[in-house]
Amino acid sequence: MNHLRNHFLRLLAILFISASLSSCGSKPEKTADHFMSLLVAGKHLEAQDMLGKDMRSMAGMLGGLKPYYRSGAFTSYTLTQLEMTDKSVSYRVDAITSAGQRYSDFMDLTREDGEWKVSMF
Fold this sequence. Notes:
This protein has helices spanning 2-22, 28-41, 44-48, 53-61, and strands spanning 74-84, 88-97, 102-112, 115-120. The protein is α+β, with helices and mostly antiparallel strands. The longest helix is centred in the first third of the chain and has 21 residues, at 2-22. The protein is globular.
């Protein structure tokens, strides 16, 4: 009986550890790529949900992301990681607009509540 109980407790511990690790938030490069993909697709409300608290407040005051990143504004992009710490990551964003113009800027991600959020773009 003790053997079965120990086996069950080990299984429970493994499941708990797995669930804890999977909720630690995504990798910053996946978050940055997903954010840019949403902008390319014109999904501004979804992209806005990926903003950090301060950036979301600022975007709200400016009327959201749509006026600045209309659908089709970007047709392609490249992300280059510049710096990384435990709590923040900086990327250079090089994009091409639908008019064929090159766009270059920086994006910062920070950890908020265990998830990577866009804190500057």
